[in-house]
Write a structure and sequence with these properties.
25% helix, 2 strands, 1 helix, 12% strand, alpha+beta
Length: 69
């Protein structure tokens, strides 16, 4: 039973990924580049990098928080 549920969920995931963006309702975030690795820096040196964030969806995109890892 668990195996059937897992297979169904995986199939649903692949189906949703195959849908064109226009068919999906709601906001769709697109970030370019997705990651950025800084070169070695000295302590106290300010670091900046610009990320291009776009909403490719059909509803407003709200960004409520941004964190780093």
């Amino acid at each position: 039973m668990k195996k059937n549920i897992l297979i169904t969920l995986i199939s649903l995931l692949f189906t949703m990924q195959a849908m064109p963006a226009e068919a999906k309702a709601g906001p769709i975030i697109h970030i370019d580049p997705v990651t950025h690795i800084f070169a070695a820096v000295f302590e106290g040196q300010p670091l900046t990098h610009d990320f291009k964030v776009q909403n490719k969806g059909s509803a407003d995109l709200e960004i409520k928080d941004v964190t780093h890892q």
